C-alpha cells in the first residue's frame, strides 16, 4: 500500500457538524477501500488566491492515509462526486528506504572538521554563479557616535571664527 496526503478545500459556509461529517465520510470510504487512515489535520478557513466557484475563502483539511493502487482511482472518482468540495489535491508520499537512511547517517558521521567535504553538483553551480555574477555590496550598520552639545558649540565657534563676514 502506498501512502498519500489529501488536501481538501471545502465551502467556507459549512458548519462544524457538516465538516465533521465530511471528514468521517472520507475516513469511512478509505476503510471501505481496504486502506488505512493515518491522520487528519483541520487547517481552518483561509483566503483563496483566486475565486473558485464564486468563493473567496475555503476550509482546508489535510488527510494522511495509505491505500492500494487498485482502489486509488475509485477513491479519486468518489471525491470528484462530493458536494461541498471546491478542490482537492492528492500527493504520493515517498518514504526513505532503510539503506538510504543508513547512508545519510553515515554521511553525517563522516564529516570531520579539517577534512574536505564532497561538493555536490548544485553547490558547484552556485559557486560558479557567485564568481560570474557581480556581488552585491553588503551594507554594514554604521556605528552612531554620540556627540554632546558642548562639542557642537565648539565646532560652530571654530567655523564662525574661520570665516570673516
Describe the structure.
- This protein has 165 residues and is an alpha+beta fold.
- It has a domain at 2-92: Ribosomal protein S6/Translation elongation factor EF1B (Alpha-Beta Plaits, 2-Layer Sandwich).
- It contains 5 helices and 4 strands.
- The protein has a 4-stranded antiparallel β-sheet with strand order 2-3-1-4.
- The relative contact order is 0.16.
Key phrases:
alpha+beta, Alpha-Beta Plaits, four-stranded antiparallel β-sheet
Order of helices and strands: EHEEHEHHH
In CATH terms, the superfamily of the domain at 2-92 is Ribosomal protein S6/Translation elongation factor EF1B
What's the total number of strands? 4
Q: Main beta sheet: strand number and arrangement?
A: 4 strands, antiparallel
- CATH architecture descriptor text of the domain at 2-92: 2-Layer Sandwich
Total count of helical runs of at least 4 residues? 5
| Range of helix content | 40-55%
CATH class call of the domain at 2-92 = Alpha Beta
CATH-assigned fold name of the domain at 2-92:
Alpha-Beta Plaits
Envelope shape: elongated
How much strand?
25-35%
Separation of termini? 94 Å
